[in-house]
Write a structure and sequence with these properties.
This protein has 8 helices and 7 strands; from the N terminus they run E-E-H-H-E-H-E-H-E-H-H-E-H-E-H. By secondary structure, it is of the alpha/beta class. It has one domain: TIM Barrel, CATH 3.20.20. The strands form 2 sheets. It has a 5-stranded parallel β-sheet with strand order 3-4-5-6-7. The chain is globular. The protein binds iron/sulfur cluster. The site of iron/sulfur cluster has 9 residues, from loops. Iron/sulfur cluster binds next to loops.
Length: about 250
């Protein structure tokens, strides 16, 4: 059993799993299959977060920060989320931040919002693609948009951003599907970097989501080869890629 964790995210309201038994992305450590009593959650203002960081890490810590990566929480809408991100960026800049600012999300997916995001910082579009097969079953109806829709999102992001980086979970797709679909992305040059993390299962129920081909290191080695053969060698961008951890492409 996995209880509803406190730090919720927007996708946890959706049912996932082959029997709709989960809430949230079926591979996520936040996914749950049993409710617990609601607890009050406060929102900390970005100004207070910055003050706290400066207090603990020094007055010039924001100025010295090279990268800020935001993970989406549970915004009311994409419009609200963009407003929140703008406010965060303005605040960081007012404290001397000059680094790279990106947002790991699938919530920003319309042309208008992708463009708005690019006005804040157009260095990296971080998209949570996660898997190619069983998308709605594993990710829910919103995040699990069809691959055709995902390709449209990536095409537009490619026009507006210097670099497109996707998150991918190794262990959900068949190797054939992984090869075929990464080739599709590579042919159109839609992806510059892949954050490939290996699936971990946190409960017996989660084991059922693993692709049946996963039965040891062979699958992992083949998955690595697929990415390397397509020229999707991970970049050293400071983001951990578990599939290549031994080569330290962080
Ligand atoms: S993977 Fe991300 S979007 Fe999905 S449930 Fe976990 S935190 Fe939410």
């Amino acid at each position: 059993m996995r209880l509803n964790p406190l730090n919720a995210c927007a996708n946890m309201k959706y049912k996932t799993g082959n029997n709709n038994q989960f809430r949230g992305c079926a591979f996520c450590q936040r996914m749950y299959d049993a409710k617990r009593c609601e607890e009050a959650v406060g929102i900390t203002r970005i100004e207070d977060i910055i003050s706290d960081i400066q207090l603990n890490m020094g007055k010039d810590s924001i100025e010295k920060t090279k990268k800020v990566i935001v993970l989406s929480g549970s915004p009311k809408s994409d419009l609200d989320y963009i407003a929140y991100l703008k406010n965060m960026h303005v605040n960081l800049k007012s404290h001397g931040f000059r680094g790279e600012f990106s947002v790991v999300t699938s919530l920003i997916n319309s042309e208008k919002m992708i463009e708005e995001l690019s006005y804040i910082d157009n260095s990296v579009f971080d998209f949570t693609l996660e898997c190619f097969d069983r998308r709605e079953e594993l990710l829910g109806p919103e995040k699990g948009k069809s691959l055709e829709e995902v390709i449209k999102i990536l095409r537009y992001a490619k026009m507006k951003f210097e670099m497109v980086r996707i998150n991918y979970i190794v262990g959900l797709d068949s190797l054939e599907s992984m090869g075929k679909n990464f080739q599709l992305l590579a042919e159109e040059n839609l992806v510059d970097d892949v954050v490939a993390n290996v699936l971990s299962t946190y409960s017996p129920q989660m084991k059922g989501i693993k692709n049946e081909e996963v039965n040891g290191p062979e699958y992992i080695y083949r998955a690595r080869e697929i990415l390397l053969d397509l020229g999707l060698k991970p970049r050293r961008t400071g983001v951990k890629k578990h599939l290549f951890l031994d080569e330290d492409f962080s």
